[in-house]
Structures are given as structure tokens and as C-alpha cells.
Amino acid sequence: MGKTFILFTFLTALAIITLNSYSDGPAILGNINGTGGPGSGGGTCAGCHSGGSGVVTGTGIVLKKKSDNSPANGKYLPGETYTLTVNGTHANPKFGFQLMALKQDSTQAGTFSNLGNDKHTMVLSGVTFVEHHHTLSRTGNDYTVQFDWKAPAAGSSDVTFYGIINAVDGTGSAIGDVVSAPFNLTLAESTSHVNEFDNTLALHLYPNPARDILYISLREAGTYMLTLYNINGKVAVQRTAALYAPGNIPLSLIGLSEGNYFLNIANGDKRQTLFFLKQ
């Protein structure tokens, strides 16, 4: 009877270990590239995790220059350090993720740092993966994780980030989890530190702080793309506006939470980012 109980206990423990084996990340525990990107063979974390309801929405990768919090806007400056944010949303209370950054020849692009205690890196076939060190918890209704990325040296050409999120139900079983579709972000190499933000576009934003309406005072007529980001790098408002003479464009802030925002203003190749406080 005692031997039977011991055997049952051992098998139960083994099953629990197996079910939780990737709670520390698939790369470090299983040498697995689950991003769906190059080197994965098209495979994702869904090969082990499934059975949950719904889909992971709002997935994306946002990069902001660490020195001034300005968005990358589709380009990176060689050698510059960026804060990288991975986002997603699902009802499951916990999540994991995996991400890599590759040059066009599928070799490693840049370096990762400032991971904290809940993330780690693992090198597989010369490529560095960033992933959860243990299952992560939602922030409100969102999955958000941040760390730093230092861009590669000049001459590296385009860089593409490949990521995936696994929404887990916290039971320790792979059944009941929901894996996102693979997502990616490509940044072109910038050849100039000057042309990233053209300071001839906007005179200023007012009032600042603003409550219901923000006015953008512009020097030139034209069609402008206005993209408003919250402090976590998520797009809060995006729209186009036509200005037929130098003047002001109003932007409604109704429905937005109080806090710090930054507004990217684009007109052709000209871009500028300005910051303001929503009250």
C-alpha cells in the first residue's frame, strides 16, 4: 500500500512538472523557438498550449528612444537604445511571451538588457530570445512587458522583431491556454540623426495641460497624420486632418484617461513628436 502511494505521488509530481515545464520559457527549458518566425519551422507555442476560449487581441511591439521617449516611427538609429514594449489583451489572468530581433540574413540584431527578475535571454543557434522567467500577470486587462534593446551598428539594414504571447489560465495545465497569432515589426535603418523629427512642422500644442480639446498649431498647410500614444506606447487616437493654410487643428481628448501622452505629427517625410498632459 505504501509503495503504491509513493508511486502515485511520484507520477503526480512528474505530471505537474511536465505541465508547468515551460513556465520558465520555452527556449531555456526546451530549446524551442515558438515565435513562428525564421528558425521556428512555422511552429508556435500553440503546439503545446491550446484549448482556451477567445483570442489574444491588441498584440504588438512598440519601440521608443530611451533618451527622450520618442517613438521609433518605423526606423532605428544605429547604436541607439530603445525601450521595447510587447502588448496583448486576453481574459486569462497570466501570460508568457517570446521575442527575437533579426537582420535580413536572419542573424541576431542588437542586444537586449534591463530585463528585471521576470524575464531572461536564451541563445539558440546564435539568436538571442527574450522570454518570461516565470508566468507574468496582467496589468489591468492588458498584457504588457518592457525591456531595453540596443540597435546594431551602422550598415545592418532592416531589423525585424518577431513575437508571440501565450495567455494562460494559471491552472498549471497547458489545456485552457490561448496562443496569439505571431506578430512582427520591421524597422529600417536610419542614416541620419537629424531627419527623424523635423522641428519645422508644429509651433506648439495648447492648452497644455489639456482637458477636452488639444489644439495643434502648425506652420504649413497640408494633410497631417496625427497619432496619439499613451505613456505605455499604445495608440490612443489616430486620424488624418487637412489644413489649407497655416493655423490650428483641434484634436478631441474626450474619453481618454488622465495622464501623460505624446503626439506624433507626420506630413510626408516630415515628423515631429510633442508631449502633453491630459487632465
Q: How many structural domains in the coordinates?
A: 2
Which structural class should the secondary elements be placed in? mainly beta
The low-confidence runs, each spanning 5 or more residues with pLDDT under 50, are 1-21, 193-198
Output the number of helix runs.
2
Element-level helix/strand string: HHEEEEEEEEEEEEEEEEEEEE
Task: Report helical residue fraction.
Answer: under 10%
Question: How would you describe the shape?
Answer: globular
Residue fraction in strands: over 45%
CATH topology of the largest domain: Immunoglobulin-like
Radius of gyration: 22 Å
CATH superfamily of the largest domain, please? Reeler domain
Task: Identify the CATH class of the largest domain.
Answer: Mainly Beta
Proper CATH architecture of the largest domain: Sandwich
Strands, total number: 20
| CA(first)-CA(last) distance | 69 Å
- What's the overall average pLDDT, rounded? 84
